[in-house]
Write the C-alpha cells for this entry.
Amino acid sequence: MGITEAILLTIATAATPLLIAAIGELVVERSGVLNLGVEGMMVLGAVGGFAAMSLTGNPWIGVVAAIAMGALAALAFGFLTLSLAANQVATGLSLTILGLGLSGLLGVEFVGKAGTKLENISIPVLSDIPLVGPLLFGQDPIFYMSIALVIGVSWFLFRTRPGLTLRSIGDNHVSAHALGIPVLRYRYLAVMFGGACAGLAGGHLSLVYTPVWIENMSAGRGWIALALVVFASWRPARVLAGAYLFGAVSIGQLHAQALGIAIPSQFLTALPYVATIVVLVLISQNVRATLINTPAMLGRAFVPDR
C-alpha cells in the first residue's frame, strides 16, 4: 500500500505541470493561434517564481510571479503575431529559445539556493483515508488549481456564449469579424491565458516538484504539453487523461531505473518523449477525426484590413 501510494502521488505531481500547460495551450489553439513557445514560457515562470519566492520568502508570491512571467511572455508573442501578423510558428520557436536563454541569465544568482516549498493542503479526516486520502485530499494547492482549470475551461468552451465565440473565431475568423466579433481582443485574452497557465506550470516545477532553481528545468515538458493538446483532440477532459498517462510514463521510467531493470538508463530517460512521438503517429493515422476536431484557422494570421 505504501509503495502504491507513493507511486500515485509522484504521478500526480509529475502530471500537474503538463496538465496546466496543456489546458492553457488548448484555449490558445481553440482561438486559432498556435503558440509553440510553451517551453520558453514555462521556464520563465519557473525562474520568476523561484526568484520571487527566494527574495520574499513567500512561495505564494512566487506563484503570482510565475503566472505574471508567463503572461508577459505571451503578451510579447501576441503583439508580434496578432498586431504585427508575424509568423506564429517562427515566433513561438523564437520565444522558446529566448525563454531558455533569458531564464538562465536571470537565474544565475539563484543556482544552488534552497527554496521554500509550497506546502500541501491537508483536509482533516479525509486526508487520513488510506491511499485515496493523500491522493485527493492532501495535495499541493497547484494540483487543485489544475483540476479546477480543466473543469472551468470545459465549462467555458462548451457551456458559455464567450466560449462559443472563441471557438467560432478558431474555426473562421473572417466570418466572426464580419459579425462584429472583436477577433484580436479574444485572441489576445486567449494567448495571455495560455501564457499564464504555462507560467504557473513552470512555477509548480520550482516551487513544488523540486523547490530549487536549475537551468532548463522544464526539460522538454512544454513540448509534451503541445503534443497533449493534439493527443486530446482539443478536448479538456482528454487533456486530463493524457497528462496523467504521460506523467505515469515519466515516473515509471524512474522506478524502472531504481529497480535496476537491465535497460539502458538513456533509453528509460527518453521514454516519455518516445511515447509522445508514438502517440502522435497513431493519432495522425485517423485523418478524418483529426480534421474534424482541429480549429480550421489554427496558425493563420488575421488582419482585419485584408
Observations:
- The chain has a mean pLDDT of 88.
